[in-house]
Amino acid sequence: MICYRDMTFCSHPCANTECIRNMNDDVRARARAWWGTEGDPPIDMADMRTGECGFVPMDEVKI
Predict the structure, then answer these.
(1) Model confidence over 38-55: pLDDT tens digits?
(2) pTM exceeding 0.90
(3) Which of 3, 5, 21 is nearest to 13 (CA)?
(4) Is the dihedral of CA 20, 34, 25, 41 positive or negative?
(5) Contacts of residue 46, Cβ cutoff 8 Å, sequence gap at least 6
(6) Dist. CA 31–CA 29, nearest whole Å
């Protein structure tokens, strides 16, 4: 199966912007540009949280 960047992105909202698996608006925009205008781009998503992933819940972010 073809998917954006041939990798899996984390399905959980996360404030860790340093994580390469962080799904955010920039990733979505780049995937749309890569895929073109025919429907939604194929993006592989899964629960990628592990004990060492650096997961930061969005509600813990200080603005």
Answers:
(1) 889 999 999 998 777 889
(2) no
(3) 21
(4) negative
(5) 8, 9, 10, 11
(6) 5
